[in-house]
Design a protein that fits this description.
Elements (H helix, E strand, L loop, with lengths): L2 H17 L6 H13 L9 H13 L1 H14 L4 H17 L5 H12 L5 H7 L4 H4 L18
Helix pairs in contact: 1-2, 1-3, 1-4, 1-5, 2-5, 3-4, 5-6
């Protein structure tokens, strides 16, 4: 995926992770702003308007927005480095409010199931987050995000 498209996709991914538990916490918004301001892969990305638009679209129907996003992952053709960055950003957002909800783990597992990256690589890259990356509940086998949530 081209860099400019990847920035937009990665940002959308962060917002989806923020919304998947039905609560857009201030800590999560702060973390998104921190990531965009400080990480090289977001250099030059203007996110303020995109944040408003994405949240507005998600609020219409959270579950449908998440399912559309999950379908989009498989067609994006991410390379391994981009997949690792995606998992990193998702973990940072999920952990930002210091409350990890089951719906967030389910979302992470469903995203991970759509990627080509193997378990061993994820374990090496994120050794402190293995409990979130191992799919003990087989969430990755689910075709749709079915949790009833509203924002």
């Amino acid at each position: 995926m081209k860099n400019v498209d990847f920035k937009t996709f990665l940002f959308k991914s962060a917002v989806m992770a923020m919304a998947c538990d039905g609560d857009i916490a201030n800590e999560e918004i702060k973390e998104i702003k921190n990531i965009v301001a400080n990480e090289i892969y977001f250099m030059g990305y203007d996110f303020e308007e995109q944040l408003k638009i994405t949240i507005k679209n998600i609020k219409v129907n959270v579950k449908n927005a998440i399912n559309q996003y999950l379908q989009e992952i498989a067609t994006n053709g991410l390379n391994e480095h981009q997949e690792i960055l995606l998992i990193e950003v998702l973990l940072r957002i999920i952990l930002a409010d210091e409350k990890v909800e089951e719906s967030e783990i389910k979302f992470l597992q469903m995203v991970k199931a759509k990627l080509k990256i193997d378990e061993q690589t994820l374990t090496v890259k994120f050794p402190h987050h293995i409990e979130f990356l191992m799919d003990f509940n087989n969430y990755g086998l689910h075709e749709e995000f079915t949790n009833e949530i509203s924002i």
